[in-house]
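Help needed: design a sequence for this.
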């Protein structure tokens, strides 16, 4: 799935969605996405933003609240780790 987000230069850019997540606590939907670029440690750069699932617009919104962002990041990291572990089990 492709999504649009505003990059660091203020331009709308197309990204690849990795997964979506709904938080009952914040009653919001989130998307984890990438532009398939890697950092200096050769790790895939990923972003987390909120989005309105009912909006015809596919532009995501930044998570401004640090506590909310950290909580969602922790939850998503748990999901990604579970996916990785399950994938490794299948490979063995």
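Sure. Designed sequence:
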């Amino acid at each position: 799935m492709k999504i649009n987000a505003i990059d660091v230069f203020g331009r709308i850019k197309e990204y690849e969605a990795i997964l979506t997540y709904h938080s009952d606590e914040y009653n919001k939907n989130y998307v984890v996405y990438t532009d398939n670029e890697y950092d200096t440690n050769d790790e895939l750069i990923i972003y987390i933003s909120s989005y309105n699932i009912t909006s015809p617009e596919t532009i995501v919104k930044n998570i401004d609240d640090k506590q909310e962002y950290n909580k969602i990041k922790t939850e998503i990291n748990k999901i990604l780790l579970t996916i990785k572990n399950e994938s490794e089990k299948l490979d063995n």
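The mean pLDDT is 89.
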